[in-house]
Amino acid sequence: MSLPRAAAAAGRPRERPAGDPRPDAPAATTGRGRSRTAAGRRRGRPPGRTNTRQDVLDAARRVFADRGYQHASLRAIAADAGVDAGMVRHFFGSKAGLFQAAMDLPFDPDAVLPVLLAPGLDGLGERVVRFFLSVWDDPQTRGPFLTLIRSVTSHEESARMFRDFITEQVLVKVAAAIDRPNARLRATLVGSQLVGLGMVRYVVGVEPLASAGTDEVVAAVAPTIQRYLTGDLSELAPSGDVGD
What is the pTM of this model? Predict the structure, then answer.
């Protein structure tokens, strides 16, 4: 009989490290008579944890900051948090979903892009601008978006994480949907226009743009976005070498 089982059988409490808040109890066993520790790491919520979701979010921020979005993996994040990778998927579904939660993104690109792209390229510029303005104008999403913009413009690691995410989860997908020469360049130009619009209208608050109506802004900006998406950009990049 092993020492832990002998102690349990004799009614003696098992020794635990000082400060361990868990009550004394015999080790749980598997069908083969081995403790779960001996059989391998217990899957699911780690013993003694009270907020595993927050542990995963904290670990994700560390790993994303250290490796960037592209090179971070769910397995590495799970290991840092001390949980099984299946628990990470249970909470967040995918790496993109985890990044969205960790960075407090105000929208999910996987949900938004199909809606914007489904009607086709005609009118896409207007749909993109209206959606972008709606995110800023909604009180529930404006705060997180403002925090995100300030973070990526003042912290190098935040900027690197966000750049990797936008490239992989937004620009690549938009470029594939556009299916035009210099598609990546086009998607990047759209991003630059929208970020500049957000900074001037919402962050800095330059008038009269800051107080202009939504329809006014859409009418002024959407044609430029549409040109970036579908217009002739041959003067900006020779023979489609940039971004494809």
Answer: 0.63
Give tens-digit pLDDT for 150-192. 777 777 777 777 777 787 788 888 888 988 888 888 988 998 8
Number of domains making up the chain: 2
Identify whether residues 119 and 206 lie together within a single domain: yes
Quickly state the pLDDT bin for 103 (edges 50, 70, 90).
confident
For the cut 70, the answer to whether the pLDDT of residue 27 exceeds it is no
- Enclosing domain of residue 142: 105-240
DSSP the chain: --HHHHHHHTTPPPP--TT--SPP-PPPB-TTS-BHHHH-PPPSSPTT-S-HHHHHHHHHHHHHHHHHHHH--HHHHHHHHTS-HHHHHHHHSSHHHHHHHHHT-SS-HHHHHHHHHTT-STTHHHHHHHHHHHHHHSHHHHHHHHHHHHHHHH-HHHHHHHHHHHIIIIIHHHHHHH-STTHHHHHHHHHHHHHHHHIIIIII--TTGGG--HHHHHHHHHHHHHHHHHS--TTTSGGG-S--
For range 26-38, the mean pLDDT: 43
Q: Please compute the mean of the pLDDT values over residues 64-80 and round it to a whole number.
A: 87
Residue 160 located in a structural domain: yes
Query: Are residues 221 and 123 both part of a single domain?
Result: yes
Give yes or no: residues 184 and 207 share one domain: yes
